[in-house]
């Protein structure tokens, strides 16, 4: 009998590789938050250069429930988590937790048609602020998909059937303190490990065996925060970068050993955005005036501080991660609410615009948000605004140039008295996948 893993035979896999039907799908997939490399670059060819006046074609729309988590796309499936609440009454108070009851779930849809293939749901009371639904995008790794619920349910499922492989509760099994705004650290697969923030003494970050769920290692005395871990290569070393509420830390991803740490304390413990790297520079952004530019050592795993942000200097990210390209940092600034470009040498602002976040605003927008995805190695970007518009734009140090926009879906969540969509999209197989609290939408982005 041929060797099999989760029902997949080695013979079948070899046959698919020989016939060339595996690699194209893998190359085009978006299997986790911010894409295959967690850098928000869409490397697929044949994508639109601009959005025409007549708009874009919608391939399908499918009803879903509430959530801030983005879609993941892999192996012909779209994976999405949401929350089916017993009551639709929402009270969004940034300083207070809300109790809600309902079911948290993950669904798999056919990538081409939107047909539901399976769902996995479980009862999950909420007691978090902005209790709309899950925050973390699913992470797909071959035959397995991982999800992290807003209250700390860490779950591994079979991608084909939705069958449970293993499950841990960060709160019940490890005594984790759930942050005010819920668990938001998108799980990371590294080799045979699944790594996620947990929080607590000696277990700020933890690694699990990705197939069994058994604990592989624990590290750091810190709170959970909201930022996802990421692995970079710098100083001739693979480094696991963790941004927790008191600093940015580099660890050995194999065992959790600490290489270096630089302090950074964003207000309200809002370590959210992934620290971004270009060359030997790394920028970590928080809210208010908390940010730091670091220089990574070329020969060993080490880092030093270059500069820190000041008022009207740098980018201070809320719910979205800035991009670091050609010596410029682009990101939506939570203080002013606009898209900002800053010089990576010193944080000086090069330009600002509200066109990418909310074009009807001209002066101030509390936590105004947009999500940026670079198209390959070009200066063109896909921008998803908080009003539900998709834009194509050229971003350079000289300015912002719009190349058209298309209204994808309605802003169904509420924040600071306005409707918003605060969900990162996915891009795969010449298609964009977007969600709000009512539907997931597939939009054709293939060049004509």
Give me the Rg, rounded: 21 Å
Q: What characterizes the major β-sheet?
A: 5 strands, mixed
Q: Please give the order of strands in the largest beta sheet.
A: 3-31-32-33-34
Oligomer: single chain
- Alpha plus pi helix count: 3
**Mean pLDDT, all residues:** 93
Described by the principal axes of the CA atoms, the overall outline is globular
Q: What are the low-pLDDT stretches, counting only 5+ consecutive residues below 50?
A: 1-27
Please report the distance between the alpha carbons of the first and last residues. 47 Å
Relative strand content: 35-45%
Helical content stands at under 10%
Structural class: mainly beta
* Total number of strands: 39
Walk me through this protein's architecture.
This protein has 3 helices and 39 strands. It has 448 residues and is mostly beta strands. The strands form 11 sheets. The chain has a 5-stranded mixed sheet, with no helix packed on it. It has a 4-stranded antiparallel sheet with strand order 4-39-38-37, with no helix packed on it. It has a 4-stranded antiparallel sheet with strand order 5-6-8-9. The N and C termini lie far apart (47 Å).
């Amino acid at each position: 009998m041929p060797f099999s893993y989760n029902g997949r035979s080695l013979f079948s896999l070899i046959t698919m590789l020989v016939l060339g039907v595996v690699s194209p799908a893998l190359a085009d997939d978006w299997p986790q938050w911010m894409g295959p490399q967690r850098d928000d670059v869409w490397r697929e060819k044949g994508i639109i250069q601009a959005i025409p006046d007549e708009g874009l074609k919608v391939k399908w729309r499918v009803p879903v429930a509430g959530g801030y988590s983005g879609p993941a796309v892999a192996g012909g499936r779209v994976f999405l988590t949401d929350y089916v609440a017993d009551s639709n009454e929402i009270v969004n108070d940034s300083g207070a937790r809300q109790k809600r009851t309902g079911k948290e779930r993950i669904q798999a849809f056919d990538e081409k048609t939107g047909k539901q293939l399976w769902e996995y749901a479980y009862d999950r009371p909420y007691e978090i602020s902005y209790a709309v639904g899950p925050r973390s995008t699913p992470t797909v790794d071959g035959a397995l998909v991982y999800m992290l619920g807003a209250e700390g349910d860490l779950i591994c499922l079979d991608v084909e059937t939705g069958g449970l492989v293993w499950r841990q509760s960060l709160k019940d099994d490890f005594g984790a303190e759930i942050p005010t705004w819920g668990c938001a650290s998108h799980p990371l697969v590294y080799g045979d490990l699944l790594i996620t923030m947990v929080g607590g003494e000696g277990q700020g970050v933890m690694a699990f065996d990705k197939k069994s769920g058994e604990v592989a290692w624990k590290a750091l005395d810190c709170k959970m925060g909201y930022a996802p871990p990421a692995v970079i290569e710098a100083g001739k070393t693979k480094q696991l970068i963790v941004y927790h509420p008191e600093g940015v830390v580099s660890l050995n991803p194999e065992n959790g050993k600490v290489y270096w740490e630089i302090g950074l304390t964003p207000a309200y413990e809002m370590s959210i955005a992934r620290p971004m790297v270009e060359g030997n520079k790394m920028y970590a952004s928080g809210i208010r005036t908390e940010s730091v530019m670091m220089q990574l050592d070329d020969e060993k795993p080490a880092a030093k501080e270059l500069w820190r942000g000041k008022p009207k200097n740098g980018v201070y990210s809320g719910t979205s991660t800035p991009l670091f390209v050609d010596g410029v940092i682009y990101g939506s600034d939570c203080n002013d609410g606009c898209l900002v470009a800053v010089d990576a040498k010193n944080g000086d602002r090069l330009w600002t615009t509200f066109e990418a976040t909310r074009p009807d605003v001209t002066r101030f927008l509390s936590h105004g948000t947009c999500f940026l995805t670079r198209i390959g190695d070009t200066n063109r970007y896909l921008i998803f605004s908080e009003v539900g518009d998709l834009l194509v734009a050229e971003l350079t140090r000289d300015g912002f140039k719009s190349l058209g926009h298309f209204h994808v879906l309605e802003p169904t969540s509420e924040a600071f008295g306005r409707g918003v969509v605060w969900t990162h999209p996915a891009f795969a197989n010449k298609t964009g996948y977007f969600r709000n609290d009512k539907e997931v939408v597939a939009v054709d982005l293939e060049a004509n």
